[in-house]
Amino acid sequence: MILWIASYPRSGNTFLRVVLKTAFGLPSDSLYAEKSDIPGLMREVREGLVPGRSRSDMARSADLCCVKTHDLPGDDDFPAIYVVRDGRDALVSYAHYALEILEGQPAPSDAAFLAMLRTLVSTNLHFGGWARNVDAWQSRKGPTQVIRFEDLIVDPIPVVERAVAGLGIRSQSTASRLPTFAELRKTSPAFFRVGRVGSHRDEMPEELEELFWSRSAGAMRRYGYSPRKREVGGPLVTVVTPSYNQGGFIRETLESVLAQDYPHIEHLVIDGGSTDETAAVVAEYSGRLSWISEPDRGQSDAINKGFRRARGDIVCWLNSDDVLMPLAVSKAVAEFERDADLKAVYGDAYRIDRQGQVIGEFPKAGPPNLWKLVYHSDYISQPTVFLRRRALDEVGYLDESLHWGMDWDLFIRLGKQGRIAYIPQLLASQREYDDTKTASGGFRRFRELVRIMRRHGRRRYPPVFFVYGIDTCFNVVRRCSGFLLPVISRVAQAGLPLWKWFVLHTFARWEGWYADEWATQTAHFLVHRNGDRIRIRGSLPQISERLRGQRLQVSCNGVRLKEFPVAFGDFEEVVALHKSIADELLEITIEAARWFVPSDEGLNDDPRRLAYLLREVA
Q1: Residue 120: which of 87, 150, 148 has the closest Cα?
Q2: Which domain holds residue 345?
Q3: Which of 243, 286, 377, 526 could crosslink 371 through cysteines, CB 3.0-4.6 Å?
């Protein structure tokens, strides 16, 4: 019978084999050719094996045959001891081993090491990837005892005795003393490289650690590994998670909050009386979050319950099928600490599917643009938003009459009241699948969004009306394709995506100001009144002769105010408001006389019409 001695590479597998042979008299074979740098050690751990036996011979044998493997488990039900090591340490060690031993580079460059480490962190190419390897062995059908490398190197004999006994194997230690990991490192330094717990802190960049946690948080948490916590003070942050029958997703949500490096987090799960496995999943996290489960009046009501219970100076809500990226809370707190007047911050987000796999990124949100938010689209990804509690108290909580656009409505109210900031980093992952409220809301959702756009804006049919209208038609046809006549279904499904592309690309230019600060020939803005003047600051790059002789015309709330020339270089213009304009919220339009298209002039492949760089309208 085979006893698998399994692990992801560089996780202590060979040290376990030394313990099994030295202390328990159990030799072991390997699925791989043993490395020539440790021939004496390998002879020792193999001593006592029947030479020439195949794997099938070992499987049929009545004797216990220990076999080392790093591969993903097969369908057999042989017992296994699996060694798990902090994935960050394992990957750093394996990156060194792969370059220095497998590829024969005794002194690889920093660039080569980081490239190898990035490959190991971001892909599943090597033995299925760390998290997948760990999860697959833990969930296999055969009996498996998992031991932690960090425990093994401290007190190996009791750790292995418990694992062997847990598999029902009768074997007792006969050794009075074992070689320590440090002693093995002296005799075979290339193989037993470091073995130090936490060695990744010196070699894994923060950006790669963040990526690793986004892919492996569940497996890491399951075996007691935690992200580095910042040993700092700071405000309490409350995360509110509304939940109703999302038991299949909520574990990932909870794990993503626990994986944050910021130490001052209060997590409130507000459940609407779920009837699935939600309660059982949340119960596993008892003591690390607060949970109530009772009937509510919908998602907005549940979130507001959480806001009322929140003790944090900063609050956010994270739906029970979305996840935070590692370091998201720290980044939000840092932004608030830089600017005491900020009402809210937001960032960018991944799109993930039902299985949690990344399927892309949402378009970059870009700097705050109230005109775009009111008239073009809700371009802010909700799970990336963090709110200052006092700002929330000032503008009011979520409108509980809204079921689809309550976040959009709140963001507009916050934007009208004061300053919000954009963090140009990925802060969350938002799940997309057919059963989400957004995808299944249909024309009821569209009617609610129309009500919001007309509540906050002066236009009856702004671009957002058409953007959300065509998106609604697209979702309805896609969901109802099985009920339509085949010809109608095929025509609709072929034509609607083209129409959706046309509408989105046409109206994408309507706000006229891009995230890279370029403005088109017509740009729109909504700004708060600050006295009786408007300040416009920007630059006209000498990049195309088509821009020579540029002139800008400024209007506010439909009243033409001023036209002025712009020369190449930086410019700043102060425009007086007309005495007839008494509004506190100003809708400003800037029209340019000249523009150019970079792709037409062979500069690059940019197809936009660009007129000037705009830095500020205030």
Answers
A1: 87
A2: 237-436
A3: 526
Task: Pick the closest to residue 497 from 507, 487, 505 (CA basis).
Answer: 505
Is the distance from CB of 365 to CB of 348 less than 8 angstroms?
yes
Flag whether 34 is in a domain. yes
Quickly list H helices, 546-586.
none
**What are the distances in angstroms from CA 287 to CA 62, 123, 268, 284?**
47, 34, 11, 9
Q: Give the pair of three-digit tokens for residue 601.
A: 């002039």
Q: Which of 335, 330, 324, 315 is nearest to 427 (CA)?
A: 324
Query: Which residue among 417, 436, 455 closes a domain?
Result: 436
Cα separation values, 447 from 154, 300, 376, 378, 500, Å = 64, 18, 16, 15, 19
Ordered strands of the 144-148 beta sheet: 28-30, 65-69, 2-7, 80-84, 144-148
Residue type, 565: P
Question: Mean pLDDT highest for which of 162-171, 228-237, 462-471?
Answer: 162-171
**The pair of three-digit structure tokens given for residue 45, joined into one six-digit string:** 């751990």
Quote the CA–CA distance of 216 and 611 in Å, as a whole number: 46
pLDDT tens per residue across span 438-487:
555 667 777 877 787 777 766 676 666 667 666 666 666 666 655 554 65
Q: CATH code at 307? A: 3.90.550.10
Q: Is the pTM of this model over 0.70?
A: no
DSSP helix, strand, coil percent of the chain (3-state; round to 5): 40, 20, 40
C-alpha distances out from residue 507 to 93, 163, 348, 376, Å: 51, 63, 21, 7
Q: Mapping DSSP to helix (H, G, I), strand (E, B) and coil, where does residue 588 land?
A: strand
The residue whose two tokens read 């798990």 is: 84
Phi, psi of 194 (to 5 degrees): -130, -60
Supply the CATH number for residue 217's domain. 3.40.50.300
CB half-sphere exposure, 395, CA atoms < 13 A? 21
What is the C-alpha separation between 558 and 602, in angstroms, rounded? 37
589, β-bridge pairs: 524, 555
Could you tell me how many helices (H) and strands (E) the chain has, helices first? 21, 22
Residue where one domain finishes, among candidates 222, 246, 275: 222
Domain assignment present for residue 44? The answer is: yes
